[in-house]
Structures are given as structure tokens and as C-alpha cells.
Design a protein that fits this description.
Helices cover 42% and strands 23% of the residues. It has 306 residues and is of the alpha/beta class. The longest helix is centred in the C-terminal third of the chain and has 27 residues.
Length: 306
């Protein structure tokens, strides 16, 4: 059995993988109404309280634990750090020490990529270069992912948002409309009730995009009395246009590499439908798209069995 831990900024999660089947439990952290985030001290407290309950809910007999995987940092860049990941690290180290299981450390971002590959049955892509989009509240990046003898895979940023992240744009628009953070699901539902067709030219600088204008436009639409359905569709259409333009530019520059889309924002219906209709792309299944520990369990499995 392979165990994974992930304690990101907004979700506590644990997973167990037996080489065939995945078992996971996760819980969103609580954010007060009207607020758009959590202090790290509050996130650490909630993770500490959540984790024992989630482990108890894992519907599987763990048996012999071969290896443990854990995310120790947000991204694959120097200096990437958030205190909330310490809770996952502490749990992973404890399990490793008490059971004698091997411990493998990776990043939250790599976990997202591996969870996406597992969900579409393409773990074989770890052996070849591909492009992975990681689009969430804290990250809007396209990464060139390549095999790595030590880390399994390495991810290099080749395109990104230079300001606001996609998930931030969604959550800020949702909170200003009176919804509770996080707002991705409600904007998805609202957008499907709009019959507006927005023609959007994304703000680009080479392969990079700028998303800061989305929040300002959403506020202007709200102040003008436009419907929440139309505002939601505008926000999501704007993000989709930026992701589309980034994808187009990447394929021109790097060639026809496989495309993988992960992160909570990529579970959105409008974005997924439009991108898959245009490109031969893989989107993580919804339960593997949002923050989860499945990717760290897969990381432990692949590192241990390669």
C-alpha cells in the first residue's frame, strides 16, 4: 500500500493506493463568509484537526505500507514554501518512522500533475516530455514536464499569468457577488444559465497572460446591474480565452506535445469543453482536479516501483 498526504492552503487530504485502486478522503478548510482566504496559522490548525478524522474515514485496510508520499512545498521552484504543508510532512514522517516505509517528498504541483495523469490512465507520460497546465487559486502556469532520474519528473515553467491567478479571479468575482469562498462551483453552475456569447481578446505578452482586468470588469458589470449568470460566464470565458491563447502559443513554440490540464479551475465545465473541442487534451477527472493527496500517493508508488 502507498500512502499520500497533502495539506494545501485550502484542502486537507490523504490517499491510499494499492497499485490498482485509489482511496481518498479530503476536506475543504473553512473560510469565513465574505473573506477570500485564510491566514497560514488558521490553515495549520484546521489541517491538524482534520487529518486524524480523514485517516479514520479511509475505507480500506492499509496492511503493509510500502512507501509514503507527501507534498512539502507548493511548486517546483527555489524558495517555494508555505507553513500549511508542515502538517502533511509531520504525518508522513510519523507513518514512515513507525512502519519503516520509505518516504518520498515532492511538491503540491507535481502531485496535481500525477493525479491528473492517473485519472486519465496516462501515467506512461512520465517517461516522455509533455505540457501540463496547473491552474488554481495560487497558480496559473504551463509547465514543460520531462523525465528526471532523481525526481521522477521535473517541471519547468514556460508560460504563466503575470498578475492575478485564475482561481483568484473566480473567487474575487464570486465573493463580490455575495457567495462563499471558494466560488468555482457556483460560478460554473451560474455560467451554464447564461446565453451570452462573449468575444474576448486575452491580454498576452508572448506566452504569458494577464488576468487582472477580469476582476475590474466583473465589478463594473455588477455595478451596472448585469446578471450574476452573465458575470460568471464572462469571468470563465476570459480565463478560457487566456488558457486557449497560451496553449496555442506553446504548441507553436514547443511542438505537438501531449497536453494535460490540472488544478481546481480546470474542473470547470465551460473551460474543459472548449479546450477539449479544440485540442487533443487530457483533463483530470473532477475528483482528481481539485487539491488532493492522490498525486503524492502515486508519486510514492512510482518512485518505489520504478
Amino acid at each position: 500500500m502507498y500512502i499520500g498526504f497533502d495539506t494545501s492552503n485550502y484542502t486537507t487530504s490523504v490517499a491510499a493506493f494499492d497499485g490498482v485502486h485509489m482511496y481518498q478522503q479530503k476536506q475543504l478548510l473553512t473560510v469565513k463568509s465574505g473573506e477570500r482566504g485564510l491566514r497560514q496559522s488558521d490553515a495549520v490548525f484546521q489541517h491538524t484537526a482534520n487529518m486524524p478524522k480523514l485517516i479514520d474515514r479511509l475505507d480500506v485496510s492499509l496492511g503493509k505500507i510500502e512507501a509514503v508520499g507527501v507534498s512539502t512545498r507548493p511548486r517546483e521552484v527555489e524558495g517555494s514554501y508555505m507553513p500549511c504543508f508542515l502538517v502533511g510532512i509531520n504525518n508522513a514522517v510519523s507513518v514512515s518512522r513507525f512502519t519503516g516505509a520509505k518516504l518520498y517528498e515532492t511538491s503540491h504541483q507535481i502531485g496535481h500533475i500525477l493525479a491528473a495523469l492517473y485519472s486519465v490512465d496516462r501515467l506512461d507520460l512520465v517517461n516522455t516530455p509533455f505540457v501540463a497546465f496547473h491552474v488554481s487559486g495560487g497558480t496559473t502556469e504551463a509547465l514543460l514536464v520531462e523525465p528526471d532520474s532523481e525526481k521522477l519528473i521535473k517541471a519547468t515553467v514556460i508560460a504563466q499569468s503575470t498578475d492575478l491567478k485564475a482561481g483568484q479571479a473566480i473567487d474575487r468575482a464570486g465573493v463580490m457577488m455575495g457567495y462563499t469562498f471558494p466560488c468555482g462551483r457556483v460560478l460554473d453552475e451560474l455560467s451554464r444559465k447564461s446565453d451570452r456569447d462573449f468575444k474576448i481578446k486575452p491580454s498576452m505578452n508572448g506566452l504569458n497572460c494577464s488576468l487582472s482586468g477580469i476582476e475590474n470588469k466583473a465589478r463594473s458589470m455588477l455595478d451596472s446591474g448585469e446578471s450574476k449568470e452573465d458575470i460568471s460566464k464572462y469571468v470563465l470565458s476570459s480565463i478560457c480565452s487566456a488558457v486557449d491563447k497560451m496553449t496555442e502559443g506553446i504548441l507553436e513554440e514547443y511542438g505537438n506535445l501531449p497536453l494535460v490540464y490540472a488544478g481546481g479551475v480546470m474542473s470547470n465545465t465551460l473551460i474543459k469543453d472548449r479546450i477539449t473541442n479544440k485540442y487533443n487534451a487530457y483533463f483530470a477527472q473532477p475528483q482528481y482536479s481539485c487539491d488532493n493527496a492522490c498525486g503524492t500517493a502515486i508519486y510514492a508508488y512510482l518512485k518505489d516501483t520504478r
